[in-house]
Every structure is written in C-alpha cells, then in structure tokens.
Automatic annotation (TrEMBL):
Residues 1-21 form the signal peptide. Transmembrane segments: none annotated. Gene3D superfamilies: Alpha-1-antitrypsin, domain 1, Antithrombin, subunit I, domain 2. The keyword Isomerase does not apply. Keywords: Protease inhibitor, Serine protease inhibitor, Signal. Residues 27-375 form the Serpin domain. GO terms for cellular component: extracellular space. The keyword Chloroplast does not apply. One of its GO terms (molecular function) is serine-type endopeptidase inhibitor activity. This is CSON010106 protein. Belongs to the serpin family. It comes from the Eukaryota.
Length: 375
C-alpha cells in the first residue's frame, strides 16, 4: 500500500539592527531568490545553519544533494553549528509532534555541537496554539521584531516536524555617523524617477576600492564588535545594479573584494533604511540542485526515532534590517543640504541610487546578511 508522504515544514526567522564562507553558497543563494525588484535582505548564514541540520537528518541522495549545494562534508556541517562570535547569537529549535520523537543519535550529535537542547514536543492538532507557541519563541529570539512567522493555516494533520532558526545581530558603527550631518536628498530609483529620503554622511578613514570588473565601488563600514563590517557595493551607474548582480555571485567575496580594499580617506553618504523581507526559498534551492528533499523520494530517515516517509513542504525565510546613524534604531534626523569639504585626495561614495550590501564576519568567514536597496 502506498503511503502519503508526511510533510516537514522548515521555517527561518532572523533580525538584524542596523560568508563568504568556505564556498559560494551565500552568493549563489542570493542570486537564485525571487527579489521582485524590491528592497531585499536575507541571511545566508541562517539558511546554511538550518540546511546543515537538515542534511544531518537526511540519508542517501537527499543528503548528497544538500552536501553538494552547501559545499561541505558532515564534519564541516557540524562545525558550522558552533558559533565562535559573541557579536551575534543564533538559536535552533525543532518542534516535533507529540506522538513522534527525534532520533536520539541525530539529537545528541547536534546538541553536543551547539551546547543546548533543540528538540521540543508540540501538539500540532491545534494549529492556532502551535503557531502561537512557535511565534513566541521566534519573537523572543529576535528582540520582538518578528512576531508572526508561522501562519496557523500551514499546520495540518500531515505536519510532523517544524524546524526554526533565528539569528540576532545588533551592530554599532565603529565610526558613528553624526546626526547633525543627516539631511534629505533625492534617492534615484532609475535615471528619471526619485524619492526624497534621509541620508547620513561621514568623512573618515575607511577601507575602499574601485573594481573595474564589477563596475562598482566598495567601502567597508566596520562595527565595534570584533571583525564584522558592512560592505556597501555601489554600481558606477544609476541603473547598474542588475549588471552588478549578474557578476557578483561568481566572485570570491573574501579574496576578490575584502582583501583588495585599501584604507584611505573616504566621504561616505548612505541612506538610512529599514527593510523587511519574506521569501519562500523552495524554488531557489531547487534551482541550486536540492530537489529531492521536496519530492516523494525524500529520505529523512535519520531525523525521527521511527523512520517514516516525510518530505520538506516549504522553507520560509524572513529578515529585518535597520540602518541609521548609530547602527541601531534612532529617531533624530536633520534636514539640510550636503556640504562636502573633502580634500582632493579624498574618495567619495554617494549611495544615492540602488546598491548592494553585505554584512560579513571575517573571523569565521560568514556572510551574515546580504541585501539590496532599490527604493
């Protein structure tokens, strides 16, 4: 008798106030998501952590596909779950239906690496209560910034497991933008259209360079915490973001960009912005080669104590980023005009049209967040 596959729902939540890692997974993921010509932010590191957990519960071809897109073997996957930084925190939780249990070896292996229990029993029969319980956990992990990640309607009688990953990063600029320098000016959406937005401005020593192959300039804006910085990648032309994105996913972020930046005096003008972005990652991951885990052929026999046919239904990813003068949420701003007093040897980066940004941990080689501002 053919049994209907049970569904595994996989959810991600993250929040940031304000890799490339061992492979090109972060930029490949960003290249493949549906951006819909809007402001975007995702956390490749959060996705990578969660897929690593899924890979440890998978078997055979399902596991092989996950290893291939992540570019890691099992030892590296396990190591990726251990966070060495104190600048950001990550949390993982695996909710299992009350009549099911996680495989003891799977659970023990993960908990030894991350140092805390990940499994929690939950009654999926009442979708409203289950969603509320999960959403409260997500809200607590993200400083109450993400409150409604799980829709009660997606929890059905087929639901066996919901895996949630949350990451929280609060970055304070090493060199804060003076609030007295905040002013209103035009942000160009394209060659003709624009909107008035608040810009921050600061002239000091930053790492900077211009890249002819990308047709873009890059400036490093460091945070106070450890070796983490935001990299603003500004195309040379107002309409150059799409061309930049078509090339960017093939670069080695550390070697091709970060290591080629040189410290110099730079006058940086950057808009204050806040972005919330919610995306289903199913198609992006299928395009990258992870198709089996969404199909009837999925094999997650290492996940539950009593192996049964389960497959992944949806991977839902939500992120929030806020950037202002402090690097955290603030309300003060001053309207005025930009007055530049930069010496001839000073470089300029004026992000007055669509640009790309990356928040990168150089110590652990993680792309924590990547996004773009289009409006």
């Amino acid at each position: 008798m053919l049994h209907l596959k049970e569904f595994l729902i996989f959810l991600l939540a993250l929040k940031v106030h304000l890799i490339l890692g061992h492979d090109n997974f972060p930029l490949n993921l960003y290249h493949n998501i549906d951006k819909n010509n809007s402001n975007v932010v995702i956390s490749p590191f959060s996705v990578e952590q969660s897929l690593s957990i899924m890979a440890l519960g998978a078997y055979g071809s399902t596991a092989s596909e996950l290893h291939d897109i992540l570019g890691h073997d099992e030892d590296v996957l396990l190591n990726s779950l251990k966070i060495h930084s104190t600048s950001y925190i990550t949390a993982n939780r695996i909710y299992v239906r009350t009549d099911r249990k996680l495989n003891e070896n799977f659970q023990s292996t993960i908990e030894k690496r991350i140092g805390y229990a990940v499994g929690e029993s939950i009654d999926f029969k009442n979708g409203q209560n289950a969603a509320q319980q999960i959403n409260e956990w997500v809200s607590n992990q993200t400083d109450q910034k993400i409150k409604d990640l799980v829709d009660p309607n997606v929890i059905t009688s087929d639901t066996r497991v919901i895996l949630v990953n949350a990451i929280y990063f609060k970055g304070i600029w090493k060199n804060k933008f003076p609030k007295d320098n905040t002013f209103t000016r035009k942000f160009y959406l394209n060659d003709k259209d624009f909107k008035d937005v608040e810009f921050m401005q600061l002239k000091t020593d930053f790492k900077f360079n211009r890249f002819e192959d990308l047709k873009a300039s890059v400036v490093e804006l460091p945070y106070q915490t450890e070796n983490i910085a935001m990299y603003v990648i500004l195309p040379n032309e107002r309409t150059g973001l799409d061309e930049l994105l078509s090339k960017f996913h093939t670069t080695d972020f550390e070697k091709d960009i970060v290591e080629k930046l040189e410290e110099q005096k730079v006058d940086v003008t950057l808009p204050r912005f806040k972005t919330e972005f919610n995306v289903n990652l199913n198609m992006a991951l299928k395009n990258m080669g992870a198709k089996m885990m969404f199909s009837n052929a999925a094999d997650f026999r290492n996940l539950l104590s009593s192996p049964e046919p389960i497959q992944l239904s949806d991977i839902i990813h939500k992120a929030v980023i806020e950037v202002n003068e402090e690097g955290v949420v603030a309300t003060a701003a001053t309207e005025g005009q930009l007055i530049s007093r930069c010496a001839p040897i000073c470089e300029y980066l004026v992000a007055e049209y669509p640009f790309l940004y990356v928040i990168y941990d150089r110590t652990d080689k993680h792309v924590l967040f990547i996004g773009e501002i289009r409006e």
